[in-house]
Amino acid sequence: MSLRLPIALCVYLTSKGHYGSQTLYRATLEDLDRQIPLRSFAARVAHLKVQPGEEAAAAGIGTDLKSMGFNVYVATAGWSRGQSHMAEYLKDQIRVSRLPELNDCQFVWHCDDDSALVSHRDTLEVVLARMTSLISASPDTLTARFLRREDLPATLAIQSAPAEGDVLWTSDVNFQQPLLRSLDYYRMLKIVEDNWATASQMHIEALWREVLGHFARGQRKHAVWHPDYAETVHLGVPDYAAVCARHSLTVRPNFT
């Protein structure tokens, strides 16, 4: 019997890509597929933000993603790094939160397109199962996520609850592959949409922390794996080719 996960895999990407590579997402998704077949997820959604003038590259990316079993949603908008990028990203998240695919899944796995996942002791399938169990165990546990090793000191500094084995408990949230309830995802982004004038001016991760924080009573809001157990490796960096080579990941050529 094939594995079936009650998770909607939601990947966000842009036609611009990262540091000259428009296809870095391929390294991310192929590495994930090697650990857990992409077909195992109950839904696969990709949201592609297209810069005007990059339509040809976007067409190639969209076709490629569809060949991998993703339902692809496209939005065209101009943006630059900074607040306009964050506001456009929020609009993408609001669109995705409304999709019928998510209604049929208990969990959403919110993923950027430039992160490789490294599990040191268990298979990634086991890691994800533990993440769903952590969230299911208490309505006050809002997310479970990975962490970049270099961010561990900062995370330790803002812990809101003692560590338990492989898990740190923190009041902070970021986009290093968080898993959360689909209903929480929808409700959080509905609140963002209803308060757009204020929300669109905030740092996007601070906004998530603020809104999601009201969904929990206690301090054990966000479960984070210690990087010695499972970590995320950021690929969207200037020396991405060297980082990918260290992890035996393949960077495909651009579509243009």
Could you provide a short overview of the structure?
The chain has 256 residues and is α/β, with parallel strands linked by helices. It is built from ten helices and eleven strands.
Care to describe what's here?
The protein has one domain (5-246): Alpha-Beta Complex (Spore Coat Polysaccharide Biosynthesis Protein SpsA, Chain A), CATH 3.90.550. The mean pLDDT is 93. It has helices spanning 24-35, 55-67, 83-97, 100-103, 124-137, 152-157, 182-194, 196-199, 204-213, 240-246; strands at residues 5-14, 41-50, 71-76, 107-112, 115-119, 143-145, 159-164, 167-170, 179-181, 222-225, 230-234. Helices cover 38% and strands 24% of the residues. It contains ten helices and eleven strands. The chain has 256 residues and is of the alpha/beta class. The chain is globular. The strands form two sheets. It has a nine-stranded mixed sheet, sandwiched between helices. The chain has a two-stranded antiparallel sheet with strand order 5-11.
What's the CATH first level?
Alpha Beta
Q: What is the helix/strand order?
A: EHEHEHHEEHEHEEEHHHEEH
Number of strands: 11
How confident overall, as mean pLDDT? 93
Keywords:
256 residues; alpha/beta; Spore Coat Polysaccharide Biosynthesis Protein SpsA, Chain A; nine-stranded mixed β-sheet; 11 strands; globular
Q: Strands, helices and their partners?
A:
Elements: E1 5-14, H1 24-35, E2 41-50, H2 55-67, E3 71-76, H3 83-97, H4 100-103, E4 107-112, E5 115-119, H5 124-137, E6 143-145, H6 152-157, E7 159-164, E8 167-170, E9 179-181, H7 182-194, H8 196-199, H9 204-213, E10 222-225, E11 230-234, H10 240-246
Parallel strand pairs: 1-2, 1-4, 2-3, 6-10
Antiparallel strand pairs: 4-9, 5-11, 6-9, 7-8, 8-10
Helix pairs in contact: 3-7, 7-9
